[in-house]
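Handoff note, outgoing to incoming analyst
You'll be picking up this chain. Sequence as last confirmed:
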Amino acid sequence: MTGTRLQQAIVLTDPVSQATESADRLYFGAEFCCWALPALEELQRAVDLARQLERSFSLLLPVFSEPFLPRLTKVLRHLLPLFQHGDEVVVSDLGGIQQVREIDSSVELVIGRALSGQKRGPRILDLDLAAGELNYFRQGSWYNNEAVDWLREQGIERVELDNLLQGVAPLPAPLRGSLHLPWAMVTSSRNCPFRDQGETGVCIPKCGQRFTLRSTESGALLHQGGNTQFLENTMLPDDLGACRIDRIVRHMTLPR
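Most recent structure output, in case you need it:
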């Protein structure tokens, strides 16, 4: 992918006032918690902003549970007819593929980083790894021929990736990658510290609180937002083109 232009995308936190002039593409939605998905009115404003700025739009869909499906269907039925060429849906749950395709089979789909299967966590840096072993720890779910073939059967050629501390291995052709900065997912759970187990419905305001954690086993600082922990990593891989990464996705705050 030598010579390919590097796209710049930004994940909106406020589709009304956030500065977006430097972005080629706008992302909006939720990745890890379905109850954190913005209201339909906010999603509509994000699409409107993309149209106003003549930018492509990426709808972030979260990992979801059964009680969320009616709301997901409502969102997709409203937004997908508004999509234009270049817009896409980023799915963080494989069930989202069918949900989208049942409403619009032509929409471009992208596999979210919650499904990347990358080897995460700061303790990997403490391992004494040979070159082949290090390459393994730089890979994820979409690095074997069977996985690539399955994605192509679904009409998917783009996957979202975390910026691993140990580096990122080159994706196999024809896949293309989007790399998220600066927050790299470490772990995520359906259990949220701000909700009672089994509770459903829109998140309460305090869900937005962020806090940090530090383990005695590693000096790395973990950042917790809702049900997901992250590491901060601002260092880009040396050769994005060789990694088949042609898009940088920047977050202004901890993702949800």
